[in-house]
Amino acid sequence: MKIGVDRLTDTPTVLRFSVSPSWVAERFGRGPAHGLEGLAGDVAFEVRVHRMGPDVYLEGEATGTLDLACSRCLTRYRGPIRERFRLVLEPAGDRVPADPEGAAALAHEGLYLADELESGWFRGSEIQLDRFVEEVLALAVPVQPLCREECRGLCPRCGVDRNLESCACSEARPESPFAVLASLRSPGRK
Ligand SMILES: [Zn+2]
Ligand SMILES: [Zn+2]
User: Fold this and answer.
1) Is the pLDDT of residue 176 over 70?
2) What is the pTM for the complete model shown?
């Protein structure tokens, strides 16, 4: 996953590559800390790259599938990855990033990413994209996965899955007006 800077023109070049779950495990380590251990197959990247004056402009999308656990009802489900990204890279020139990690990345990979991941610097004729790919993947993991938008979750008192059955516990604090509506509508509950 490299970009040859010298070959770029004003007309976008389309790069397609995919990263495998084993590549991700190697880069992120194994274990459930980052949410990417649930990758179901490869993640496909499509990146359009072109020059904009001295700058290098990238935009594209990562698509794939993740096995996730719903943050409300704990059910496992498959959710799509669809992460769009855009990155403008300026030539670094003589500048050196203040943080040592950033300085090392610019020296060795030809790429320094700013914090918000939409801009950065490049140096040399080859930009190594692995680190950026990692960051895009990390962003693709939902912070609060939901099996579906209207998931009613588990009862905080008795633990019943409220998508499947109702329970006799009174709702002290309904989560949303929709939860109240749903409980009013459910048959056999007066
Ligand atoms: Zn759920
Ligand atoms: Zn209950």
Assistant:
1) no
2) 0.80
